[in-house]
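Following up on my earlier thread - several people asked me to post the actual chain instead of describing it. Fair enough. Here it is, all 150 residues.
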Amino acid sequence: MGLKKCKQCDEVLIEKKQRNHSVWCSKTCRLRFDRTRRREDNLISGLPTATTGAIHELLVCTELLRNGFYVYRSVSANSPYDLIAIKEKLLLRIEVTTAYTILSGKIMVSKKLDRERFEILAAVVAGEIVYFSDSKDIPHKDLYSAIRSI
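Reply from S.P.:
Thanks for posting it. Predicted structure:
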């Protein structure tokens, strides 16, 4: 059986110090690995984070337009939501954010959000859009299931 090495720094794991299922030599390495993976998953290499955020907003706009919504995008940097989507008598305030998954698979949002200001949260995780209804932490694969849960 070969020696197990840390996923982050390649240091050999000492079996007595770590559990058999450990893949990192320390909490620092685990956090560093997770942070690095998160940035790689969500940011487009070499672009400022604001540009990545704008790209994610436009991804959501594209999906809404494909689903027959009229879409209005905020030009104010400190608007309480990013998009307004209208279809027939339905009007939705939508906040778009870049999100990431932690090792357990749970989707995490990196900023504090005032959930009372919008109905739908569109979280972009590695190029995929996951929707959350306003007060629920249940991810929805598509916009219509999120709308039904409001």
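The chain has two domains: 1-42, 49-148. That should answer part of your original question.
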